[in-house]
Amino acid sequence: MRITTILFLLALFPGIGLTAEYHVAPSGSDWRGDGSAQHPWREVQKAVDRAGAGDTIIVHGGDYRPLVIERGGTEGRPLVLRSEPAHAARILGTTGHDGRNAAIHIVADHVVVEGFDLEGERRRGIVERGIRVSGFPGDLRRGVVLRNNRVRHFASQGITTSLSPGVVIEGNEVCCTLESHGIYVANSGDRPVIRGNRIHDCHKAGIQINADRYIEGGDGVISGALIERNLLYRNVLGRDSAAINLDGVVDSLIRDNLLVDNHFQGIANFIEDGARPSRGNVYLNNTLIMPAGSHHGLKFRDGSSHGVVRNNVLIDLGAEGDGLAVDGESLPGLASDHNLITRVEDPSDRRLSLSEWQARRRQDLHSLDARRWSLRALFVNPDLEHPERGDFSPRPGGPLVDAGVMHPGLGRVDLAGRPRVQGRAVDIGAYEAGASSSSP
User: Fold this and answer.
1) More exposed terminus of the chain, fewer Cβ within 10 Å: N or C?
2) Whole-number pLDDT of residue 296
3) Helix (H, G, I), strand (E, B) or coil at 228
4) Where are the alpha helices (H) located in 216-374, listed in sequence order?
């Protein structure tokens, strides 16, 4: 009778399904175990092959082989794969799937992966990725969340997604890619959320979004991206990219990020593989501090027009570098103001002082000249060697406090999680005055 009642309810309400919790541990057995807490399985692959929509897989501390997730969940009932405690479960090395190597392949919908440590081979000249989320023409990946993982020392990308709209990548540490990017979102995956990650020491971009018109199954445009509250430092070691690199990215919001000591370029809007220039992007309350010898802070190229730049710190520490660069094709529709800027490279390819930029282009009329203050006068503890330990919140009473302007895209909280407006007005930069700038 009880089984009959359950079957009747499942038929009447198909959205309510039974869920299960499975366990994996180094002491378990794939042959004698049943996935219970008392009799866990040994390998994560065993669990993901058995689990389904709404199920949770608890992976206990230990070292495990790489895996492929080919069956996920449904909307509202994801398959959840979690390390307990966080970062105690390590996935070592990579495995091949459809011609690519990764530690974790996700080729299914509605999958949550959280709390794992992934370690690459620390070897150049191989193509390996940490976490790979991959859709295919006519079979897009949806509902994937990657949260609170540590992904380190892979030769290629740390985290990469393809044809995966709505992917959420949050709270991860991605570092030390040997030859490529930290986080790479590609191939027409609209509305990605990249939030609260710590990305450092990557050979190329910390965050690369490439719409790629050459890939079958996409339109070559990524729209509606949200990049917020990330900490990026010591990226672009190969000096041929930007800490945040946007190719064919439109109508997106980039706010409350801290970028320190990234080589070559801070943020780049351009077109190379995308079908359209990176137009209509909004930049609010980001703090960029570029080292001497770098190329640009925030760059608009190739018709990346109608950009909005508000409440940002755009500092270049070199004698000749610029915080903002805009070419002639990208100048139409630009709305830049209430920022703190060192110099600007305008469409003439000359680096102008802020006052010259204001007079020539009537931009940044309420912005501040960064050359008037030292970093110590601007920030509480601007530790450039160890940005994750520094405090880049505005120095109380300093020029950044209450110097910003409201905007509909303003975040409710700053990079430290404090309410965005603390005084009479919003502050300039990624932090409000008094907020601790510990890493996200």
Assistant:
1) N
2) 94
3) strand
4) 354-361
Place of tokens 């502050």: 427
What backbone torsions phi and psi does residue 283 show, to the nearest 5 degrees? -115, 115
DSSP 250: E
Question: Residue 13 contacts by C-beta under 8 Å, 6 or more apart in sequence?
Answer: none
Tokens of 239: 């000096």
Q: Mind listing the pLDDT tens digit for each residue in 351-372? A: 999 999 999 999 999 999 999 9
| Whole-number Cα distances in Å, 405 to 196, 284, 400, 408, 418 | 23, 10, 11, 10, 17
3-state secondary structure 90-111: EEECCEEECCEEEEEEECCCCE
Q: Which pLDDT score, from 0 to 100, does residue 7 have? A: 43
Query: What per-residue confidence (pLDDT) applies to 216?
Result: 79
Measured distance CA(329)–CA(397) in Å, rounded: 39
CA distance 234 to 36: 44
Q: How much is the pLDDT for 17?
A: 60
In whole angstroms, what separates CA 31 from the centre of its chain? 39
Residues 6+ apart with CB under 8 A from 237: 201, 202, 203, 204, 263
pTM attached to this predicted model: 0.94
Low-confidence ranges of the chain (pLDDT < 50): 1-3, 5-15, 438-439
Distance, CA of 347 to CA of 329 (rounded, Å): 8
**From CA 154, how far away is CA 39, in angstroms rounded?**
33
Q: Residue 178, by phi and psi: left (phi above 0), alpha (psi -120 to 50) or beta? A: alpha
**Phi, psi for residue 22 in degrees, rounded to 5:** -115, 155
Tell me what pLDDT residue 348 has.
Answer: 87
pLDDT of res. 429: 98
Alpha carbon distances (Å) from 379 to 83, 302, 401, 403: 37, 34, 10, 14
Domain chopping of the chain, boundaries: 18-338
DSSP string spanning 370-420? GGGS-HHHHEEE--SS-TTTSEEEEPTTSTTTT-----TT--SB-TTSSBS
Which 8-state DSSP code applies to residue 144? Answer: -
CATH architecture of the domain formed by 18-338: 3 Solenoid (2.160)
For residue 440, the model assigns a pLDDT of: 52
Assign residue 345 a region (left: φ > 0; alpha: ψ between -120 and 50; beta: otherwise). beta
CA torsion sign, 420 to 424 to 425 to 431? negative
Q: Tell whether the torsion through CA atoms of 64, 70, 75 and 77 is positive or negative.
A: negative
Q: What is the DSSP letter of 11?
A: H
pLDDT at 349: 85
